[in-house]
Design brief:
By secondary structure, the protein is mostly beta strands. The protein has helices at residues 2-25, 35-40, 324-331, 374-382, 386-389, and strands at 29-32, 46-47, 50-53, 59-61, 67-68, 72-75, 82-84, 90-98, 105-107, 113-122, 137-143, 155-162, 169-171, 176-184, 191-193, 199-206, 210-212, 218-219, 223-226, 232-234, 240-241, 245-248, 255-257, 263-264, 268-271, 278-279, 287-288, 292-296, 300-301, 308-309, 313-317, 340-343. The protein contains 5 helices and 32 strands. 42% of the residues are buried.
Length: 393
């Protein structure tokens, strides 16, 4: 009888302990300000609520944890040096690391699924360990990361990567971007490769050493290339851009190659590309629903399949140039806008809105990274809203 009572008593204590442990794991918010706070939840495999790291926590080591149903937040945790979650597989909410200036080690080798990735102002973070294949949005800014190995998304709403001056390469099997893909002011020679990307909404690339989109077919919004150091920009399978297409300040580019592009739904801008002598990479372009604005040092420009330009036309170059093709388009009302300008040997060529446009440069600051203010200058030239190009959600 005594043995039976002892067994039942032990079982009751164990059940109570399990219930208390379960309750701890189901809190809406888990504030971690000390090792004691972390120890309280150390037996949890799943946390139902948010994990919030306090500014005085030096290290976060949680080996048991496998799933966070809420957010993982570390904001202005200036003493946080390392995060180690070796068995964590999912974060249903946001994975936000912001203003953690001492964070140099981020280890989550089992992590595959995140709701949103937001890593901002992490000046000591040079690498991380993960295998994230699913996230709705990605925002990485102001880190010392040299690559994004450990993140390989197939689809995403927003992909924003900027001001990572050591980031030399980004390669992903991304297939579509439903809202915006924006990259700017990373390493000057960054290699950008999305070999499986088929379509994107808005796309803005500022600064790149190489660009590879071999399967890209359609842009649902605007497409903008600014201040790259590439010699060729090619999208050989792209057939349509629904809003503006712009090439601004790419001072090493000698070739634009868009052989299948037939339609641009907004404006078509080519400005300040100082080594571009020939604009002849758009042989099938039929329709531009906005205006055409070509300004630079080029010697030749031809759009042999052009049938309809619904806006105006401005072409100004410092070199000898034969305007006859575009004069004919204007006379035949293929160019339907109120304004038509075609000028050769123009000493000070300007864009349609009066901006100087032949020095191969833009008012966008350094193209080597680290100048967020430059976004305002180049966004004006590209003719896109700062909300798209400034990498802010």
């Amino acid at each position: 009888m005594f043995t039976k009572k002892l067994f039942l008593s032990t079982l009751a204590v164990a059940s109570l302990a399990a219930a208390q442990s379960s309750k701890v794991c189901q809190e809406d918010k888990n504030s971690i300000n000390s090792q004691g706070d972390l120890d309280k939840i150390s037996s949890c495999e799943t946390l139902s609520g948010d994990v919030v790291i306090g500014e005085d926590m030096p290290n976060f080591n949680f080996e048991q944890l496998q799933s966070i149903k809420g957010n993982f937040m570390a904001e202005n945790a200036v003493n946080l040096a390392s995060i180690n979650m070796p068995n964590l597989k999912t974060i249903n909410g946001e994975f936000r690391l912001q203003g953690c200036r001492s964070l140099s080690s981020l280890t989550a080798p089992s992590l595959t699924k995140v709701g949103q990735i937001t890593w901002i102002t992490l000046p000591a973070l040079m690498s991380f360990t993960a295998k994230i294949s699913e996230a709705q949005t990605l925002k990485i800014s102001d880190t010392q990361l040299t690559s994004l190995d450990g993140i390989d998304l197939k689809t995403v709403k927003r992909f924003d990567v900027d001001n990572n001056q050591y980031l030399k390469a980004v390669t992903m099997n991304l297939q579509n971007v439903s809202e915006a893909l924006s990259m700017g002011f990373n390493a000057k020679t960054i290699a950008i490769s999305f070999p499986n990307l088929v379509w994107s909404n808005n796309m803005t690339l500022i600064g790149a050493g190489s660009i590879n989109f071999p399967r890209l077919q359609h842009i649902n919004g605007s497409m903008n290339f600014g201040n790259t150091s590439v010699t060729s920009i090619a999208c050989k399978n792209l057939t349509g851009v629904e809003q503006t297409l712009a090439f601004i300040g790419n001072d090493k580019v000698t070739e634009l190659d868009f052989p299948l592009l037939t339609e641009i739904g907004g404006g078509f801008k080519i400005h300040n590309n100082s080594k571009l002598e020939d604009i002849d990479g758009f042989p099938k372009l039929k329709q531009v629903r906005g205006a055409i604005d070509f300004v630079g040092n080029f010697k030749n420009a031809s759009l042999p399949s052009l049938e309809d330009v619904q806006g105006g036309f401005n072409l100004q170059t410092t070199e000898e140039f034969d305007c006859s093709e575009f004069d004919d388009y204007s006379a035949e009302k293929i160019i339907k806008g109120d304004s038509y300008t075609c000028k050769a040997k123009e000493a000070n060529p300007t864009t349609a809105d009066g901006t100087p446009g032949a020095d191969g440069k833009t008012d966008s600051g350094s193209s080597s990274g680290g100048n967020r203010n430059g976004l305002f200058g180049i966004s004006a030239l590209l003719g896109v809203s700062i909300a798209v190009i400034s990498f802010v959600f």
